[in-house]
Amino acid sequence: MQSSGEKVVLNDGEVLRVEKLEVRFYTYAGVVHAVSNVSFYVREGETIALVGETGCGKTITTRAITKLIESPGRIESGIALFRRRNGQIVDLLKLDDEEIRKIRGDEIAYVFQDPSAALDPLYTVGYHFIETVKAHRNNVSKKNIIYLAIKLLREVAIPSPEVRVKNYPHELSGGMRQRSVIAISLSNMPKLLIADEPTTNLDVTIQAQILELLQELQKRYGMSMILITHNLGVVAETANRVYVMYAGKIVEEGNCETIFYNSAHPYTQLLLKAVPNPLKKIEKLESIPGTVPSLINPPPGCRFHPRCPFAMDICRKEEPPKIKLDDNHYVFCWLYTKR
Amino acid sequence: MSETLLRVENLKKYFRVRGSFTKKVRAVDDVSFEIFRGTTLGVVGESGCGKSTLGRTILRLIDPTSGRIIFDGRDVTKVKGKALREYWRNAQMVFQDPHTSLNPRMTIASILLEPIKSYRIYVEDEEKFLVEQLEMVGLGKEHLYRYPHELSGGQKQRVAILRAIIVKPKFVVLDEPTSALDVSVQAQILELLKNLQKIYNLTYMFISHDIAVVKYMSDAIAVMYLGKIVEIGDADTVFFNPLHPYTKYLLSAIPIPDPKMARDRKKVIIQGEPPSPINPPPGCRFHPRCPFAMDICRKEEPPKIEVEKNHIVACMLYAKK
Asked: What domain range includes position A23?
């Protein structure tokens, strides 16, 4: 794994900084450029959102950080600096399997989209806690872990947690399963929680409860959170900063309000117009013509150019540079270059 | 304009529970409403509230336990054979997941010809006809001899919609037609549905859990909770002046794609999840979670109260004391 020329440093107050991440999948159909040149950072105690449509690489990006990419996928290059609990700064992508396993599930925890698949149907909820804690701290007794489990299940608002720890996943409803998964992920007090579409399979009312819960827990434990979602409503409600992804690349980054009120990239603008806001009167929804391109042969230049209403000649040939528009507001688009 | 196309009266659909003679799932319980010609009724509710069962029962894909379905002036609750097929020609359905609702072993052309042949509709030049139809939903000649797996999700849903409207029905039940699609594609499909409605004066029943989408599509909205309609009325009325506590709760739970609006808005968070429809709570089914529950709510079923014209709410709070 080669590192880029300039030296990447983790600034004060940052938990994670990913630079120039590149992930490819070597399939029979060809090489899929799933994640190209993705850079982002997470500060302590903040929530960043990775937003984008299916197949834009948002899940792969976060999986790559903890080396959860399986063959035929490969992390080609990039740096992912992470500040550990003991203050040590490590490049996650350079760690070997043994070392990354110590961090994964302990300092960096995941909540996956489908809670039914994340829980093992053959084990009780309580056992999942035991497994998660024992993997990292073998000296804790099972009894103590169950006490911890009950405490955490109570915190995620599961009624009668003393009974629920003995339940198997199928005995819980979808919302309760997702709450349990969140509770399990918190059992090692992670520094960074990666929530991959945590509410996509749930009803709106349960979704509202889970989002509220995540925000509350984040405040209480001072965790940082990476929220992966396609739902712009969820982003508006929870994120501090937003990274918009399209076809394996970040196209725009900025504070939540900047992205919603002053978005610069045509894709962000169109995406925002495609979502109905129930509190506003909408005459017509804008739809983005065409579909997401194949990442086996991504379009040259800017990957959005075939669908972009403002596409110029240069967009078809050269990759757009990263342009600073304001503090914390960057866009990858030729429209904003100085001529 | 406001001519009733479909009227549903006290419709019930109970499912037997395996291994029990007495237990029943009351999926749809005493539901009544009307849909006017050329309009859209949106049905919202959480999963398991019976909204899909309602759609399927109305289309007679499953037989109702009791109640009446009156379509275009005819009682279709018990029709059989030819009359049922005639009803189906006029009332079609689009399913949620286009990946499973299209037969993977049939080409798009044969998928679309199936309803044409089945209803013995005469078409002079099949290929020309199909191309015309495909162009109407934003596809073209090049898609005619492809298989479903060669199309994207949005394109598949376009085919599924076309399959439903190709026999020129009057009424279409859309069961979560955009839930499996990405937002940018969702917008395309919603626009397509609106255009088709204008061209053919179609009447829609739009079932979805996404309230923002239902609001955008519908003229009237029905809110369901555990098999019952708790509130029904004009879309704007239900949305901006919700009366039932459940509707208020449901509306405040939608994430708003606007950070300022999201922050400023008053939130009603109610804990808990819907109870099982096998043994629904007595009285008002929402009372265990309702912050305004009174004694009477625990005992008696709330009456349907017409608070204003075309705005009916089933809640004791609005009953005259």
From this structure: 1-100+231-277+287-339
